[in-house]
Amino acid sequence: MEETQMNNKKQSANPHNIDWMITLLPLIMIIGLCVLFFSFPTQSNTVLSNIRFLLGDTFGVYYLIIGLGIFLLSIYVACSKYGNIVLGAPNEKPKFSFFAWGSMMFTAGLAADILFYSFSEWILYASDPHIAELGSIQDWASTYPIFHWSLIPWGFYLVLAVAFGFMLHVRKRDRQKYSEACRPILGKYTDGILGRLIDLLAVFALLAGTATTFSLATPLMASVIGELFHIQINRTVVTIIILVLTCAVYTYSLLHGFKGISFLAKSCIYLFFGLLAFVLLFSGETKYIIETGFSSVGRMFQNFFQLATFTDPQRTTSFPQNWTIFYWAYWMVWCVATPFFIGNISRGRTVRQTILGGYVFGCGSTIISFIILGNYSLKQQITGAADYLAMYQKNGDLYEIIIAIVKSLPCAPLILALLFITMVAFYATSFDSIALIGACYSYHRLGENESPHRLIEFMWCILLILLPIALVFSDSSMSKYHCCLSNRSRDRTDYSQFSKRCEKIYGRTLSHTIINRESRRTTDKAVDLTRLPVFMSSPVTSIYCQNTCSMINLNKKNKGETHMKKKSLLLSLACAMLVLLFGMTANAQSEDTLEPYSYTNPAYANLESDTDSASDSIAPYSQEAVPNASYTSDVDALAGTLRQQMVSRAAVINLYYHHDSVLTQAVFDQLCDDLFAKAIAHTGVGKEGDYILWNCQGYTVGATQEASSQGSGYDVHITFTFTYLSDADQEAQMDQAVADLLSSLNLSGKTDYQKIKAIYDYICSNITYDYDNLYDDSYTLKHSSYAALINKKAVCQGYASLFYRLALEAGIDARVISGDSSGPHAWNIVKIEGSYYNLDSTWDAGNTEYEYFLKNAKDFPNHTRDAAYTTAAFTSSYPIAATSYAVHGSIQDYEYKITNNGQVIITKYTGNDADVTTPATIADMPVIGIDKKAFFDLPNLETLTISEGVQSVSDTFTGNVPKLRHIHFPSTLDFRTPDGSDYPILGSCPSLEEITVPDNSPYLYAENGILYDKAQYAVLCSAQDADLGDLVLPDTVHIVNSHAFEYNTHLTSIQMPDYMDLIGYQAFESCVNLVSANIPRSLASIGLYAFENTSLQSLFIPKEIEDYFITGHQFDHKTLQKITVEEGNPNYKVIDGALIYEDKTLVMYASGSKQTSYTLSNSITSLYIKAFDGAENLETITLTGNISTIPSNCFQGCTGLKELTIPEGVTSIKSDAFKNCTNLQKIYLPKSLTTIDSTSFSNAANITDIYYAGTQKKWKKIQKNGAFNKITATYHYNDDDPLENGQWLKSGSRWWYRYGDGSYPSNQLCQINNIWYGFDASGWMETGWAAHDNKWYYFNTSGVMQTGWLKLGGSWYYLDPDKGYMYADTAFSLNDHIYYSTSFQPGTTLCFPGTHAPLAST
């Protein structure tokens, strides 16, 4: 594809079309500037500096607003309907492959600057005081380069690129100039002096921008040559030679057209990523590079808007003026050429593809470059492997620093050569595209298939190289800018004497010391530098040293002089760019041609098709006369034409609309919506309405308008281009197949229900779901009714649209509904007897019993309609029935429904008899089931006999029957295999004494009021009033089903076989007289609330019970007086009457115990829900600082509790934790607390005093959720807390913490904001290994104490998970393995090297 496009040779433009003014005047201006720079280098710099300062300092916020606005605009355009516009003809494919396109775009946009700055930019930031204010150099010096080179810069390029591309490829403009983009604003003045001035400014900005870029990094290339070949020629001479060489390369590339440009760009990308891959994989810093880069990207996104809007209004550091505004001006100047080029090569791509693809390829590659190259050298600085900051402070030569960085890599000479070649390739690929754009500027008009003459291209290649040579010769390049940076950094701190003293103390220069700007102030007092070594021995006095540096700095040059040095030549050109940007963004709308408009069926948004380009966009049509066209203003008539053409599956449909005035874009968009809505409106005809809507994948529509030739008003020629799921030939097959099917179903004379049932039966029995093609977005036919009826395989839209057509052609009204059913879904509603019912043939397909046939909303779960089907207008037109439809009847006090197989299920008994026997047949149909609640709310019912033949009984088929004493089940009834799930067979039957089953039943067995399965494997249910007493279950029982003995008040004890597996949900709930129950030894699970509201007094846990299901959720322990665990149980134990799991979790306390106090063991790290529920006798409870949460209902009903202290470390108190603690008066809350649930202290209104260990200010930050709104208490705070208002401070490269009272922690472990840190004897924060109280701890580079397994240098260490100390000279158990640790000194092997595998298991 790409080669074909490139081989379509363009013809050379007419030489008479050359714009000599635009061609020659910039040439003359550049030659003039060259003469000035050669002749008056110092004066030239002075003038430029004044201009730079004026623009950057006065109008800086304007740059920031535009930068952020352009980025947000790019996201809006990409995500809006304009993103679907194709930059070219509707069906045109991209001119270049994604890789070739991305390569040319990336190299054209950044040149070799990216390599120069990727290596070194963090060094410039590290020297800026603003970074010191933000925090760590590692954090922010690695973040700002990504911010300044990624989203907003590429936003400048991409917004203008799509605008230029639209102008060139869609509007077909033949004036490829900046002024043409401003035509919607300037109108006729575009061709006059104003337009000429804009073009001159654009060309001048283009030349000046390329000049500064060329002169920036070419000295680095010269340094590389000098390092490789040890040439002693002056760097300036070598630089000029390199410039000429690069010019030759890009001239050769340009004269070979886009093929040459594409080849050079791809070669450059291969070299570029090859260099990055080598540094990443072989530098030895892969992990640091990736992790620091990942953090930097996250930090940039987290602080994006703050960074983009920071103005420093007080000019404390002038950071945004020195950096952000400078960069935004830098990118604006490049916008003269780069967007033109990107727009040119983006032909065939949509606006969305261009913008998002640009961000992915351009922005992504940029970020990767800074992450790899920058973080490699940053790691060397951080670890002390190299001191680039000191090198920079010494001579300010970034070129030599970059050479030093590369020389530290393996195979340094090879990498230097690769760096040189890559930079040459970058420059060449950047400037061949810029020269091409400049050559296009030289023509009054240049058609899309015309190219500039080669002599003009050659002239521009030469023109681009002249000014860079002049700047290098006069030393006015960006290298001067870096010298200014070096001077500015050194101006901030006087190194003449002070650096030497600091070097004696720290062993390094003051380049590592960050100045505390907040402490600057003027003073006349002399500074005694001789005492500094004494004062700097502690972190507090290091602040004094920093202040001294600041006072020395006051004698240096003023802030204005520093700013004047900071700016580059680029800033002086930014004013022209602001005007041009505004004109460019205005280019999106023209008054003579209406914008294309598109629609995609939301259900098919992700699908592909052969006409995918057409469904994305359509170009505006030329205003050609349409012969014999009849224009009308009747929208309904036009919609009718559109409907009939869509039914015929016409791909292109022309409509002729007459309007009284010029049609605006907004009116046109609304007209298109109205036409389509009317065309697909429900008409009751099977081939129209929803049928064409759900067979339409999408459309695009374009239009032109002109004054009517018949009189007043305007004629609008509208053209729709549709994409369908099925074509005209396939629809012809459908017509015949539908007619044949309806004939075979023999629907004549049948009721509406019978017609619907017959159609539904056919679809469910004959069509299968197309799982094979479900995720193949290229196969769109699966969504069609054609796929359903002809291929017999479809997805939900095919099912629903087929039912719609068949029903309507059978005379039954129906609609297709779309919505969500755990994903996008479609189903139907159908009309019977004046109401509409839901049905879903997709979900019922293949079933004999339908669950989704003719249902009301309540009985149709997991179907959420889209908004269009929930409006008042729709729901009033299509009201859903209040109850589901059923073929039902009423006979002899019974209501019933008929199944698909002609069998009866009793749904309701309506009689009032005491003794009831269900009928075996109704209306000559067998009764096979009893529905849910069929025998509910019957006050007189005493005996219920279920007739033979009944096979199933729904859950809670009977209940609220106070007199029911006897239930007789038939032999045919089968409850299936119970699984202990929540399946209550009986509701409330308080008088039920007897349950019987015939002896010949193959499924069930009943004895003593208990219903079992036939094998007595499971207890299914029991009579609630059966006199069970002390019950011993048969040895065969393995399962007690959910609700099995619920509410039996006669049950006093239960003995279950040791081989039982399961006790179900609420199995013994409300057996209020149950005082004794055993836990079977082989029990695998107990359902929630199994023994809730019982009177158990003791609990014995066998040694075989190891799993975590003996908790307060299963057992009501308010009456428990004793808990016993059999010796040998590996997980459970009892401590002071409380059940403990794995030595860490207090599961539940025997709340019936007479104990009045309880002290929590130090080993306990968590409490379980309801742990102390109902412990009325406890008056004091002592907790430890090892728990972090007070769980729900934990101390509920502890009425004896009057005072409680919650220890430090607890962060949250959950719901109802102290509910009904009616005598609780005082509670002490820790500083660590962050969240209190709204009901934590419900019905604990007698609390009089609340003591909080932190300050009142910190108390207000706790999320209390109204927990104390109903409690009148006195609050006590600790406003003298030394940790309050504390802050981290950095002195040199080390950190310390200052309390609010001015003191600081030393020689201790300290918890700050719930994180543990270590501090040495002088108060410095510790990193790495450190000893406290004869135990070793490890702190990471941020000072955070580490816990658990730690691998260092190939050796493994284990740090206590709670306290952080290192295990040494001991054996310890972890995850069923025994580990042995050796004696330890920092850095020696502990445990075993290289693996967590246990040495031994015991």
Task: Explain the overall architecture.
The chain is of the alpha/beta class. Helix content is 38%, strand content 17%. The protein is built from 41 helices and 59 strands. The strands form 19 sheets. Strands 14, 15, 16, 18, 19 and 22 form a 6-stranded mixed sheet that branches. A 6-stranded mixed sheet has the order 26-27-28-30-32-34, with no helix packed on it. A 5-stranded antiparallel sheet has the order 12-11-10-9-13. The longest helix is centred in the N-terminal third of the chain and has 37 residues, at 193-229. It is flat, with a radius of gyration of 42 Å.
Summarize the structure.
With 1402 residues, the chain is of the alpha/beta class. The protein is built from 41 helices and 59 strands.
Secondary-structure blueprint:
Blueprint: H1 2-6, E1 11-12, H2 20-39, H3 41-58, H4 60-79, H5 98-110, H6 113-126, H7 129-134, H8 137-140, H9 144-149, H10 151-170, H11 178-181, H12 183-186, H13 193-229, H14 235-255, H15 257-282, H16 286-302, H17 304-309, H18 319-334, H19 338-345, H20 351-383, H21 388-395, H22 398-407, H23 412-441, E2 450-451, H24 454-474, H25 478-492, H26 498-506, H27 532-535, H28 539-553, H29 559-566, H30 574-585, E3 597-600, H31 612-616, H32 635-647, E4 652-659, H33 665-679, H34 690-693, E5 696-707, E6 714-724, H35 728-745, H36 752-766, E7 768-769, H37 785-789, E8 793-794, H38 796-809, E9 814-820, E10 824-832, E11 835-839, H39 841-844, E12 853-855, E13 864-865, H40 872-877, E14 888-891, E15 894-898, E16 904-909, E17 915-917, E18 921-922, E19 925-930, E20 935-936, E21 943-945, E22 952-953, E23 958-959, E24 966-968, E25 994-996, E26 1004-1007, E27 1010-1013, E28 1018-1022, E29 1029-1032, E30 1039-1040, E31 1051-1055, E32 1062-1063, E33 1076-1077, E34 1085-1086, E35 1098-1101, E36 1122-1125, E37 1132-1135, E38 1138-1141, E39 1145-1149, E40 1157-1159, ...
Parallel strand pairs: 1-2, 7-8, 16-19, 17-21, 19-22, 20-23, 21-24, 24-25, 28-30, 29-31, 30-32, 31-33, 32-34, 35-36, 39-41, 40-42, 43-45, 44-46, 45-47, 46-48, 48-49
Antiparallel strand pairs: 3-5, 4-6, 5-6, 9-10, 9-13, 10-11, 11-12, 14-15, 15-16, 18-19, 26-27, 27-28, 37-38, 38-39, 50-51, 52-53, 54-55, 56-57, 58-59
